[in-house]
Amino acid sequence: MISSYIGYYSLILGFILSIILLIYSIFCFKKNNKKINQNIFSILFLQFFTVVLSFISLIYSFIVSDFTNETVYNNSHTTKPLFYKITGTWGNHEGSLLLWLLVLTLFIFLFIIFSKKQPTKYRLLSVFFQQIIICGFFLFLLSTSNPFNLLFPAPKEGLGLNPILQDPALAIHPPILYLGYVGSSIIFSASLASLIQNNINSKWAKHIKKWIQTAWFFLTIGILLGSIWAYYELGWGGFWFWDPVENVSLMPWLCLTALLHTIIVLEKRQLLKSWTLILSIATFTLSMSGTFLVRSGILNSVHTFANDPARGVFILLFLFFLIILSLILFFIYQEKEATPQKKFFLVSKETSILVNNWFMMYFLSVVLIGTTYPIFLEVMVDEKISIGPPFFNKLLIPFLTFFLIFMSLGPKLNWIKDNYKNIKYSRIGLFLICILISFYLIKNTSTEILFTSILGGAALYLLLTTIREFLVNKHNISQTISHFGFSLFVLSILLNSLFSSEISANMKIGQEVIYKKEQIKFLSLETHKKENYKSVIANFEIIDKKKNSIYLYPEIRIYNQPNILTSEADIKSTIFFDKFLVINLLKGEEIFNVRYQTKQFMIWIWISTCLISIGGILGIFKRL
Amino acid sequence: MKKNIFYSILFLFFLFIFSIFYKGLDNSNIYTTEKIKNENLSAFISKELFSNEQFDSNDIIKVNKFTIINIWSSWCIPCKQEHSVLMDLKEKTNINIIGLNYKDKKNNAINFINKLGNPFSKILTDPDGVISISLGAYGVPETFLINNESNVIRKYIGPLTHDNILEIINLIKS
Questions:
Q1: Are residues B40 and B63 in the same domain?
Q2: Rounded to two decimals, what is the model's pTM?
Q3: Which residues, other chains included, contact B98 with Cβ-Cβ below 8 Å and sequence gap of 6+?
Q4: How many domains does chain B have?
Q5: Which domain holds residue B4?
Q6: Residue pLDDT, tens place only, A248-280
Q7: CB of A38 less than 8 A from some CB of B
Q8: Residue A302 and residue B77: Cβ atoms within 8 Å?
Q9: pLDDT at residue B21, as a whole number
């Protein structure tokens, strides 16, 4: 009870501080002081502290199962393990918005500390714009989704957390994802500030690049964690479903990746100024639209939070307020890039980065259209459609081939102007060999051979090029590692989808099935009583053709509060394949539906994504 | 001047998106039905999902007084939601429900059915989506209620709801 009060009032204090900061930063801006007033630091710290305090008090309410708090009542239960009581804090709409606010205030606080070398006026304006966002979110939280609503009389027991959310990967997935998602807000604020100050130069690019890389790193890892969770918890054995919520996290990622490349051109050549700004603004706008699409209930998705139209209207208004604000600022302050002496040459590094941007924008538009088109169609002509994986695969994969080829050529080009005659015949030869190798590998599978082998060849070629780059040319390790990771990523997804196989059968205890020279035996079944669920664990033995046997223990959990059944797959990973087994109850509790899959190179999808993001984090620490 | 026009267009564009989203909030997740009467469903030939046997749609439709054709796919999330409604429909009535599996992989479709239950008397396959197009379907899920002369009595776009089921039951009775 008392913790709810502390949390609520510190939120209100934070909101007041936010308004003070809005006025005070403009006041300081007008004064033309050389240094930033010490008070700004103090207020920013105090504001960060109020949000931390309120977040801690919400966590505390969850830990002690204080059901006078409505959020705790809706999402927790006394029998839940301590770890999930804590992570349940951000597993719901109200708590996750508080997390948004925490990240927003954390980033502006860090920004003001780490931007000491930048002009004072620019820093003040960044604080101002960030406070506009923070102010909006405080209002949103306090008016429509207060996490500290009180219930009277206090219920004895809570409603419980959705069991599929009770998972370690998912517990840390939202905080990491938000660091990336919300972290892009600082890029948004800083870009608007530098637009007004006409401060867009290579010094600024160098400074904002670190923030872009940080946000990008966390966003990548966040998406990866969500994907890993979907792989073993949803029990369908896939890792990406083109679900709206997944798409919504992919869109800012694509935009941020484009920005990550463009900012290098700005840094080295002072070109593409407006484009950099547009990308910075678009990244955060896409994050916000994502929040809108997910939280308003306008889209149908497996990851639904409770829908409330009032919330949707608020985010929508705020989102378009930010868009129109940046549009107006652009209109007033944008200057023509009057640099005629700096020309773009067709064969140069900046062109190749521009090509990267075109591809990114194409991928982004496909995902954006695929996600929002159903809404437009429904409102305008009252028709309903569902857009699924076939749409995305058909439109994205063919372009991936060209993307990969450009990716292996681009980084080698020189700045300003290069000569296409430098492209040696040996490289073309290597490319053809790669296509042949990939043709040889996949010729026994039943797909469109020509197309797939070119795609595989292009990925293989990029892989070899980056390895060579790594050995010969050591000065750009972070980029090489990321590109190497990406080629590995495409290759492992390709091999995974081509060679994975699965069988589905209905089995009783003691039965066995033979599939592709492997014996699958259903040995036994055990039942355990756990803290908040009943666990049914089956024991399977898989004997392969060399008579090696492995044991798999898939599980069915019957949660008591709320009463939900989940299937936990058992997965044995090796470097070449994953063995994935999941069971489902059929009627009568005697016969089980058994799905057994071998998924080739599954682990490499995770490893390669890690490599991609490691490349990003190395870039932050690299001395330039 | 050029700049003004450009920005005005951009502004109008965002205003348009805003109004669409704003309107979208009103009818979020509410699927309506489209009423088509006395239209004939074009005949088709397709293979059954499990048995691989070939069927002519006319032969199936002729047998019962009413038939429901439901277009679904394992990758379609609204279909998952709709599935329990179909199971319910099957329990409440003895109407013949035919599934038309749209642009799906065979294994995924079978897993979907194994996991969520089978409300269909037959599941015909439409791997390249041609049949669904010839039936005039917009996407998945979509449901047709037809009589034994292939006349479309009702067409439901989007997942069926329990209200739709009551309507279907009433239509069959009358």
A1: yes
A2: 0.81
A3: B60, B67, B68, B69, B70, B120, B121, B122, B123, B124
A4: 2
A5: 1-30
A6: 999 999 999 999 999 988 988 888 888 999 999
A7: no
A8: yes
A9: 85
